[in-house]
């Protein structure tokens, strides 16, 4: 007669080197919620509002980060080398911001947006074409994306202070805003139309600015 083993929580666990593959389970926390009780001295409604806003900023920052990599790969022309390096440097800095924002959302008890399809549905940044664009157009597109993020960041920072969330305000101002402002400067100087080799001779006293 075959021996039938009855599995129960009382049965001893059999030791095995076999990994448990293809597992599926329900979520342990839904997107858009926060843990109710955390010893942060920030009430649940405050953390709910801040994490929701930070998720918008996260989706936009992930989009800008990826726009930099697209530009890094696809740029062309006599400034290729310089732009190729600059775009990758900015990509790295945006990737650091992504991590800081995502981890801020988690520590506030929320759930960070993470996957590309969710980010694509959420971002406020205009979708670029799959193909290549001229360098000035790439730079202009990146500047527009920065403007979206800077505008959101300023509003969110003010709201965080209003709600007593100084930690989020600090992240938004010291890291997100300052990094984006600096990158805007480095980009926008590339769109100034000045002669490369020979300075223009003055025509008259009149200046066009
Ligand atoms: Fe690369």
Please characterize this protein's 3D structure:
The protein has 209 residues and is an all-alpha fold. It has a single domain, classed as Ferritin, core subunit, four-helix bundle (Ferritin), CATH 1.20.1260.10. Helix content is 56%, strand content 0%. Helix 2 runs antiparallel to helix 5 (166-188) and helix 4 (135-162) runs antiparallel to helix 5 (166-188). The protein is extended. Fe (ii) ion (FE2) is lined by residues 72, 88.
Helix amount: 55-70%
Helical region count? 5
Give the uncertain stretches in residue-range form: none
Structural class: mainly alpha
Rg, alpha carbons: 25 Å
End-to-end distance: 98 Å
Task: Outline the secondary-structure elements.
Layout: H1 44-74, H2 80-107, H3 116-122, H4 135-162, H5 166-188
Bound molecules: fe (ii) ion (FE2).
What labels would you give this structure?
209 residues, mainly alpha, Ferritin, 56% helix, extended, binds fe (ii) ion
Précis, in short:
It contains five helices and no strands.
């Amino acid at each position: 007669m075959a021996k039938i083993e009855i599995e129960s929580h009382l049965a001893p666990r059999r030791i095995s080197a076999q990994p448990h593959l293809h597992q599926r389970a329900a979520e342990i926390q839904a997107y858009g919620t926060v843990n109710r009780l955390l010893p942060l001295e920030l009430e649940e409604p405050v953390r709910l509002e801040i994490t929701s806003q930070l998720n918008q900023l996260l989706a936009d920052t992930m989009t800008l980060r990826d726009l930099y990599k697209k530009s890094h790969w696809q740029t062309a022309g006599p400034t290729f080398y310089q732009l190729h390096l600059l775009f990758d440097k900015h990509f790295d800095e945006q990737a650091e911001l992504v991590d800081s924002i995502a981890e801020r959302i988690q520590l506030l008890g929320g759930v960070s947006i993470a996957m590309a399809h969710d980010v694509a549905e959420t971002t406020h940044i205009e979708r670029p074409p799959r193909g290549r664009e001229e360098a000035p157009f790439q730079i202009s597109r990146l500047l527009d994306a920065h403007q979206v993020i800077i505008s959101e960041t300023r509003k969110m920072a003010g709201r965080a202070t209003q709600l007593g969330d100084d930690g989020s305000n600090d992240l938004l101002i010291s890291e997100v805003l300052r990094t984006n402002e600096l990158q805007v400067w480095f980009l926008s100087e590339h769109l100034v139309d000045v002669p490369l080799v020979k300075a223009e001779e003055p025509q008259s006293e009149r200046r066009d600015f």
